Predict the 3D structure of the following.
Amino acid sequence: MASVLYSPRDPGLKKRDELEDMLEERRRSSDARHALRCYAPAVYKGLAPREVSALRGAVLQSDALQHVIGQVSAECGERRELVQEEAAHLLDEMAHRLRLGTVRFFAYVLSKVFKTLFRSVRVNEEGVQRLQQAIQDHPVVLLPSHRSYMDFLMMSYILYTYDLALPVIAAGMDFMSMKVVGEMLRMSGAFFIRRSFGGDKLYWAVFSEYVKTMLRTGYAPIEFFLEGTRSRTGKSLTPKTGLLNIVMEPFFKGEVFDIHLVPVSISYDRILEESLYARELLGVPKPKETTSGLLKARQILREDYGVMHVYFGHPVSVRSLAQGRVKRSQYNLVPRHIPQRPCLAAQALVGEAAFRLVRLQEQAMVLRPWTLVATLLLQNPDGMDLPVLEEQAAWLRRLALSFGAFLDWPDCKPCREVVGAGLALHKNLARVSGGRVRLAVAETPGVGQTAEELAFDRAVGVLSCASYRNQILHVFIRPALLSVALRTANSSRKDEVYTCFNFLWTVFSNEFILCPGASVQDFEEACYLLGKCCAVQESQQDIVMSEGGHATLAFLRALLDPFLQGYQVVCQYLCKETEENLRENKFVPAARNFALQLILAGVLTLCYEALSSDLQKNALAALVQLEAVTKVKVGDQVTLKVNRRAASSLEDMLGTF
Amino acid sequence: MASNTDISERQRIAARRLRVVAGHLQKCVQGEGAGVSAQACKTETPRSSPAKATSVPKRRQDIMKWNGWGYSDSRFLFNKKGQGEFTGKRYRLSGMILPSLKDWFEATFGTSLQHKTPATPTLNVSAVPPPNLVEPFVEELKVAGVAASHDPEGRVFRSHGHCLHEIFALREGRIGRVPDLVVWPNCHNDVVKIVELACKYNVCLMPYGGGTSVSSALECPLEETRSVVSLDTSQMNRILWIDEKNLTVHVEAGIIGQDLERQLNESGYCTGHEPDSMEFSSLGGWVATRASGMKKNIYGNIEDLVVHIKMVTPRGVIEKSCQGPRMSTGPDIHHFIMGSEGTLGVVTEVTMKIRPLPEYQKYGSIVFPNFQQGVSCLREVARQRCAPASIRLMDNEQFQFGHALKPQVSSIFTSFLDGLKKFYITKFKGFEPHHLCVATLLFEGDREKVLQHEKQVYDIAAKFGGLAAGEDNGQRGYMLTFVIAYLRDLGMDYYVIGESFETSVPWDRVLDLCRNVKERIVRECKERGVQFPPFSTCRVTQTYDAGACVYFYFAFNYRGLADPLHVYERVEHEAREEILANGGSLSHHHGVGKLRKEWMREAVSTVGLGMLQSVKEYVDPNNIFGNRNLL
């Protein structure tokens, strides 16, 4: 079942591969045979076979680790053997133990599970072929987007199915507490890293040497999540560069000829953790991963999760990224096993690469029509008549496509059918009654429900829905920032508009994936896109709304409304907060409570997103960046010092938009 | 005093004995054919020639190619049967049929013998620009009795070294800027006179030794508007004295390597300095480029061998006042001279260390399962400081290349033996034919010690999975060194262009550098539209305490390329960038010349470059030695 996902007539769109359903084959033939079939993937051409079994020894005896062990033992006065032992222990705690038997077991079970959960799992096979070639030519790093626990299971499953080398996956330590599953994951290629180990030199050394050894020897593709954790909001998270730094270093130091980074975009019709995420964002703590918890999740299996899309992007060569940017000869004067802080150019490169890769992930993320419907429903909290919704969705589809969205909405299908299918799949989020569609949120408190609980209930619905709207935000964000700037700027002169744009761009640089330092490019891109859809007219000096541009600009502005409002709430909170030494970990609950009070008092209507901890944290990060808040470390506590003047002027500024 | 005479008497006897031994050895070579002397690989000049005979005439073109490497009578060709053949009588390979060369050549480069790119057969004299002569300068030279000529052939011959682009242009009959005059000083005083006159008339001097430069050092700078005079040192080729008490020899710097060794051998001595170019390169050239010899493990590189240097500069003559073996008199002024690449003056006389000829020489070879194991072995040999006179490790491609040059075997038995060997190594020992690589060895010294040394090295090799693979393989490896340059000319007859380049690198980076540079070459060729994967290969040719010298060969088939030279130059450039990025040096022994000048600042820092510049400014303020190398 191939589907063309782009219209080749539009030259503005990138060429994208076709997607095939990989489950189709599984539905036709025996899963057991699939699990037991001959598995002989092509491996890295430079793979030194003897090192595969000796990985542990190679890491523990490596010059780099030995160097740090020596340092640590000198620093804390412990015997070298003890430190060595500790390193060995850390490595054993961390290391994967890939067993083909376990992989086969997973292949069998997951075949069953995936067939139940998903109608189809569509993969771009050309991407798989590119990956296969890349794995043979260079050490490969797989960088999937992270929206669900399913992500890495699915990745390994796909690679197994297509007879590709199985990756080793950096996973958070939290899985380890699930005794059996943790071990199973380990045997299917996961290795476990602690969430934070900033100061622990030895841990860092063991970990980075482990990863680099696997990479250098071409042992297996390394897989990790740039975003660091699952995004609860459906938006991509600001990338973490720690691991990316580690995997790029062997190239900088000349230990490998090149490294290929392969962005992988995984998107879901429905995310398994949907409402769980919304609750988490609202402060209901994340349940600890336990095996029994996972078993309880069995009921999940009974639901329909629609289609899953996996798109393997073009491999990005680290060598070509670094071409002319990083002088590798700077590593000539120090033995390579001695840790060296990368030069500024290398740091900048890694940071930029991380953003670029996340953007590549975003751009290749398959978007379902439902994301458009959810967007429209959120903008119309009072509900919409179905025909209006359909009409608007068709309009929005055209807009999204002209902005280059990877929208899975075939030309041939009638709008009614497409919107209907989305509504049916997400009946828990949107309700159709009497020809009118609206978000499925409670109107009146249930029996024994407090007003607070009702507000939270509603918030869960809104945030769940928003997680779908958020998936498509990356398509609209730049034009949206420009639309807001256009309205606020004092004149239509481009430089003034840009000043406004740049302000918003800076404020929201933690909220959306906006590559550092690229505000000018982003501005130009936004101008181009709005010009292309005839919403604005550009001249040498000016940029003005065109006659028919009103609807487009209004829609784009409305997209940013929840964020503008939410940020204002955070500013207000900080101005009103009387506590001098606000502890950082108290910030989110306090801000949430403040927003809740506003909602209950009716001051803040329809802005449930202000309750989201994600938004609050991003707003805080922006305030820190804008120096309205300073973080002060006292002991092991971080407290926030608020510059009230700056915070309130920021609030005023945001109010003008 | 009696004891003194005793000693000198004893030494005289010893020297005589050595001479006899040496004589035996040489006879062995001629008698056995498959002898063990290193000399066997190089040209064999008739022994009967008197010691004073020069092997380099003023008219070099009489015996040497004007547009290719080496002697006119020696060249590779594919005969009518399509078999490879090496003509002439000078080399061991001369007159032999090389049955596997064609297949290797076609398979490696994707060429066909149908597609030829023959060179322009003769030099078109009319294409040579007329000389720009400073008449009074020429007149005064004549008065001083210095030989000079502005014969076009001679000028063209001295307008180039052996970089690919230089030879490529000549084959196409393209002549660029050439010197306006060639002068042949006979002695130090002649040089003093020439330099004086050059200063007086503001003439640009370019010293010319053996003409084997591969750094564009001999190219006349295009921006040079003055009259350019090539100062050919070939006639200053006498051994002035041998000091047996101190084991030194004092030689005029124009002598070429093979003559120096041969003449010393006749007295029972050698310098042991054997760069690959020693058939043609000169002592002065070695000094000016910081040359390195194959057997440096025993004898040292040029900087270790030189005791005293005399150089004529525009400021006057520079030399030390004594021949003390080591001095603490500020920075060693020799190090301003060594590596100055003809930018400061002309080296006229050199005192060098000599050694008695070794009693015994033995080749050897070791097969390793892969390159990595081979490098580990060389590293261990270096760590234990037990490197033989020469130890070199060829990668798999070069090993196969070496095999392609195997002459026709004379008997079924030999080929059967070869088959058996191959079977043993690949099947019995499980070596992968496409991974295995070979180290070639040369031992020298007392027979007893050589055998002991040999055992030590083979024992180390065994620890790294190395198998002794016989003397013959070893010897063939060294032979390759001397014929490789001839092979490039063959390639150029069939759309194949190539070059070698070298670097030195710390031990821990050897493997990474080799892999990355080879891969970079392949990648760049592909990106620049080269149709067939290039031949990209390397060998580790020297070991040091702290690193190794790595030598690369790189060649490709340029059919279908609009501007092959440009592609070639870009690829070489990128390869050098890759070397530098991987911790390699700008050059181990080829020098900088004009080819690698752009990286000098990076290589020695701005201050370092400034130091060198200020020396140049003091010594030669008017840039009389204007070849514009190095700085």
Notes: Confidence is low (pLDDT under 50) at residues 1-13 of chain A. The interface with chain B takes residues 46, 48, 254-257, 327-329, 331-332, 335-336 of chain A (CB under 8 Å).
